[in-house]
Amino acid sequence: MSKIISVNAGSSSLKFQLFEMPSEEVLTSGIVEKIGFEDAIFTIKVNGEKIKKVLPIPDHTKAVSMLLEALVEYKIVNSLDEITGAGHRAVHGGEIFKESVPVTEDVVEKFASLNDLAPLHNPAGLVGYNAFKNNLPNCKHVFVFDTAFHSTMPKESYIYALPMKYYDEYKIRRYGFHGTSHKYVSLRCAELMNKKVEDTKIITCHLGNGASITAVDGGKSINTSMGFTPLAGVMMGTRCGDIDPAIVTYIMKKTGATPDEMDDIMNKQSGMLGVSGISSDARDIEDGCKEGNPAALLTAEVYVNRVINVVGGYYAQLGGADAIVFTGGIGENDTNMRKMICDRLSAAFGIQLDEVLNGKTRGKEVLLSTAESKVAVWLIPTNEELMIARDTYRLIA
Fold first, then answer.
1. Nearest-angstrom CA–CA distance, 375 and 314
2. Active-site residue list
3. 66, 162, 324, 365 - which has most CB atoms within 10 Å?
4. Per the annotation, does 207 bind a ligand?
5. CA 71: distance to chain centroid?
6. Partners of 30 in the β-ladder
7. What is this structure's pTM?
8. Is 309 annotated as a binding residue?
9. Consecutive H or E run containing 379
């Protein structure tokens, strides 16, 4: 038996789950929010109950030390030496890292060299790693990359139609993200269908504030909607997704916007927020649709349109599909959005949704389609932390 902690460090947050492996029992979970502020929030689950504290947490090192002290204080572990492995979510592995790896000085150096590809995420991942390394000197560490699952894409899926010198010199290509989530739900879907993953064709829809869709053939990603950055693909909470690239230079010329300002417009002012003028939160859009708000209704229609365009393309690339999987905050909880997507796909795919079951199900693992449906529709809550723990346990055992 081994205790493995899964870590997801953001620029001002730290999510964690502690597992007993290989049984995969969750011993505790929690999150530290607003790191760097006087009113930071530390939350940990103890015996099924959440314990929450609001206090100053200046940096990730302090957040990690608080977390580890809490594990002993609440008797989740008797000693920190029981934690033999720490798996760290690493967002961007570029072309260097095509699978999860044990952390060495060389790995850290190579990972840091990719900071330009993910300036908000990779440095935060390193900060989290260093904080755990300093507090758990006897623990083995593993980096689990969001991009790794998509490293199986064929070249025609990831090359952009730009001069090849930009790929050769700067590695500008489609990388894809949410790979740990897409891997988990595709494996779980195959298991639920009692099939070997090698014998399946699955389209996984990770729909949340950030959203991506992946074509999974025999357990391998062959195409995904996010690209060089997480800005590409379908419409998201505040991200525009795919647009005509000439729009960027057109707006800059018309408004005098700088590159950084355009980046902010596309990443933080667009998507559901930009189209609706209401909110980036899909729950607010869902409420607006129920009220008949025209802006909310248009936002939902645009969102569905973008999703079915991608799903339809992947269905063709795969040569059909055994299943479509919904996951992520919207995929797991927005019953109306799921229905709209399935309704638009029903004629071409032969999908028959159990509308009563869909309408009452949020966040639970369930088959949403009827027995007559030609393509199965599954709701499978994602579990990236478990995938991180599995890879960590496998690599340090």
1. 14
2. 146
3. 324
4. yes
5. 27
6. 16, 44
7. 0.93
8. no
9. strand 376-379
Residue-level pLDDT at 124:
84
Angle between helix 122-135 and 60-73 (nearest 10): 50
Whole-number Å distance between alpha carbons of 65 and 299: 43
What 3-state DSSP class applies to 202? strand
What phi-psi label fits residue 264: left (phi over 0), alpha (psi between -120 and 50 degrees) or beta?
Answer: alpha
Q: Is 239 among the annotated ligand-binding positions?
A: no
Is 231 known as a binding-site position? Answer: no
Cα–Cα distance measured from residue 78 to residue 48, given in angstroms and rounded to the nearest whole number = 19
Task: Report the distance separating Cα 120 and Cα 41, nearest Å.
Answer: 21
pLDDT tens across 171-213, in order?
999 999 999 999 999 999 999 999 999 999 999 999 999 999 9
Residue 88 tokens read as 């760290």
192 is in an annotated binding site: no
Half-sphere exposure of 164 (CA within 13 A, CB side): 2
Nearest-5° Cα angle at 208, 205 to 210: 95
Q: What is the pLDDT of residues 131-162, one digit of tens each?
A: 999 989 889 999 999 999 999 999 999 999 99
Domains and CATH numbers, the chain: 1-144 (3.30.420.40), 194-382 (3.30.420.40)
DSSP state of 380: -
Q: What is the pLDDT of residue 214?
A: 98
Average pLDDT over residues 96-118: 94
